[in-house]
């Protein structure tokens, strides 16, 4: 499944490369000057060559796209930012499927955890909750409707009064979309390509809603906070007489005395 996803990542980079103007490629080279050895930039005539160098420098990858997203935002290429966001949504839907099947995908990106977080949340609640939506999803899928239509039907049934502008709503929509991909994967003898095609369609459909919540990165942070707020142990307050507090108090006192006296 990851190999199919990585191939789609390459296709997305090729599309972005083809859409960059010569001036934008020059701007990209300038933006990357800390990561591309001086003197080599003249060898890069197309965007994919720059992307390849950035991958070798571990600046971008299929799971780490902040650097490229920030550049495209800086040059006002929102259509290409949208393309990357749609890929990241696709990736998280597929990562969700892997996690729900008790597979632990190798993820290193700080923002690439939405799929893992949502899968853990669903795993936590599913044992105690009957999910009739799965039967509805299967029935609609068998009617040959587009997966995005299925998502809209489930949204109306499961979230009839939800506000479209709330990040909670979007998180639930992503979870529903991921369940659709999981069911498609299970119902089609684990055909990875078909599941990826469905994930791509759903991601394109969902991406249009990301702007309601600020940015993809902000949404990732929101889901991470909700996940960690439930699953992670709170950090205990240090004891009042702990040694580090004494040291810090002394340090502050000396700073006030030397630099910031009243």
UniProtKB/TrEMBL annotation:
List UniProt keywords, sorted A-Z. Apoptosis
Tell me which Gene Ontology terms the entry assigns under biological process.
apoptotic process; regulation of apoptotic process
Q: Which CDD domains does the UniProt record give?
A: DED
Locate the DED domain: which residues?
Answer: 8-86
Give a single Pfam family match. Answer: DED
Which residue spans traverse the membrane?
none
Q: Which Gene3D superfamilies match?
A: Death Domain, Fas
Task: Output this protein's name.
Answer: DED domain-containing protein
Q: Which organism is it from?
A: Pocillopora damicornis
């Amino acid at each position: 499944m990851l190999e199919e996803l990585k191939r789609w990542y390459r296709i997305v980079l090729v599309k972005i490369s083809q859409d960059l103007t010569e001036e934008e490629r020059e701007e990209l080279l300038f933006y990357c000057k800390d990561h591309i050895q001086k003197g080599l930039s003249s060898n890069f005539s197309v965007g994919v060559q720059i992307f390849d160098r950035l991958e070798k420098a571990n600046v971008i990858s299929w799971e780490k796209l902040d650097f490229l997203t920030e550049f495209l935002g800086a040059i006002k290429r929102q259509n290409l930012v949208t393309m990357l966001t749609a890929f990241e949504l696709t990736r998280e839907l597929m990562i969700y499927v892997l996690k729900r099947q008790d597979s632990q995908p190798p993820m290193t990106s700080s923002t690439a955890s939405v799929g893992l977080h949502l899968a853990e949340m669903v795993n936590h609640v599913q044992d105690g909750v009957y999910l009739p939506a799965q039967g509805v999803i299967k029935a609609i899928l068998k009617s040959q409707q587009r997966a995005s239509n299925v998502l809209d039907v489930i949204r109306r049934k499961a979230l009839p009064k939800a506000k479209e502008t709330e990040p909670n709503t979007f998180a639930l929509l992503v979870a529903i979309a991921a369940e659709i991909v999981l069911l498609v994967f299970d119902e089609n003898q684990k055909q990875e390509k078909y599941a990826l095609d469905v994930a791509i369609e759903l991601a394109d459909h969902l991406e249009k809603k990301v702007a309601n919540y600020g940015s993809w990165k902000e949404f990732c942070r929101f889901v991470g906070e909700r996940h960690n707020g439930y699953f992670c142990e709170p950090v205990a307050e240090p004891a009042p007489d702990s040694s580090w507090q004494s040291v810090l108090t002394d340090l502050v006192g000396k700073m006030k005395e030397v630099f910031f006296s009243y």
